[in-house]
C-alpha cells in the first residue's frame, strides 16, 4: 500500500475521507502504527472524488463509504479494502426534539419530518428515501445542503433531522 510505504519513510501521509467520525479513529491507528508519519487529512464529498484523487497520486489513501444501491466506481490502479460491511446509519436531532431522549427511534416516528439531505453524498437522499418508503413513510426532503457540517447549527436550533449523522441509532 502506497500509504504504508510513505508512512514507514517518515513522510507526510496524505489521507482523504468523507466527513465521518471514523476519521479520528483512523488517524489514531495510523499514529500508533507509524509514529513518525505526518498525516494530513483532506475531507471531500463524494467518495468518487476521493478515489480519483488516490488514483491521480494526490492522496495516499482514502476512507470512503458506499451507499447501498450506489456502488463505487473503483479506478483500475486503486486497491480497495473493506473495513466495515455495513455502516450503521445514525439520526441527529436537536436536544429538544420529541425523539431526542429515546433509546430507539422508528422511522414512522419521524413521518412528518422534512429531512436535511447532503446533495453531494453518493445516493444519500435516494438511500434514505428507500428506507423511509420501506417503513411506510413518504419521504419529505425539505432541505438540501452541499456542505456536510451545515446541518449541525440547524439541528441545534430544532430544524429538520438529518441522516447520516452522529447521535442516535435509527
From TrEMBL:
Protein biosynthesis keyword on record: no
Matching Gene3D superfamilies: Periplasmic binding protein-like II
Domain LysR substrate-binding residue range list: 8-142
InterPro entries: LysR_subst-bd
Transmembrane portions of the chain: none
Pfam families according to UniProt: LysR_substrate
Region (Disordered): 137-170
UniProt entry keywords in alphabetical sequence: DNA-binding, Transcription, Transcription regulation
Family membership: Belongs to the LysR transcriptional regulatory family.
PANTHER family: SMALL NEUTRAL PROTEASE REGULATORY PROTEIN (PTHR30346:SF30), TRANSCRIPTIONAL DUAL REGULATOR HCAR-RELATED (PTHR30346)
Name the record gives this protein: LysR substrate-binding domain-containing protein
Species: Streptomyces huasconensis
Lineage per the UniProt record: Bacteria, Bacillati, Actinomycetota, Actinomycetes, Kitasatosporales
Amino acid at each position: 500500500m502506497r500509504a504504508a510505504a510513505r508512512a514507514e519513510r517518515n513522510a507526510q501521509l496524505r489521507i482523504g475521507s468523507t466527513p465521518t467520525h471514523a476519521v479520528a479513529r483512523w488517524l489514531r491507528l495510523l499514529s500508533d502504527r507509524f509514529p513518525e508519519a505526518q498525516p494530513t487529512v483532506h475531507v471531500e464529498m463524494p467518495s468518487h472524488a476521493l478515489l480519483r484523487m488516490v488514483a491521480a497520486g494526490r492522496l495516499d489513501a482514502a476512507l470512503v463509504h458506499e451507499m447501498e444501491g450506489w456502488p463505487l466506481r473503483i479506478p483500475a490502479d486503486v486497491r480497495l479494502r473493506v473495513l466495515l460491511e455495513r455502516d450503521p446509519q445514525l439520526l441527529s436531532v436537536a436536544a429538544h426534539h420529541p425523539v431526542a431522549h429515546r433509546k430507539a427511534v422508528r422511522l414512522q416516528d419521524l413521518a412528518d419530518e422534512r429531512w436535511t439531505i447532503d446533495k453531494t453524498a453518493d445516493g444519500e437522499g435516494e438511500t434514505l428515501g428507500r428506507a423511509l418508503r420501506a417503513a411506510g413513510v413518504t419521504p419529505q426532503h425539505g432541505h438540501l445542503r452541499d456542505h456536510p457540517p451545515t446541518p449541525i447549527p440547524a439541528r441545534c436550533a430544532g430544524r429538520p433531522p438529518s441522516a447520516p449523522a452522529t447521535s442516535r441509532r435509527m
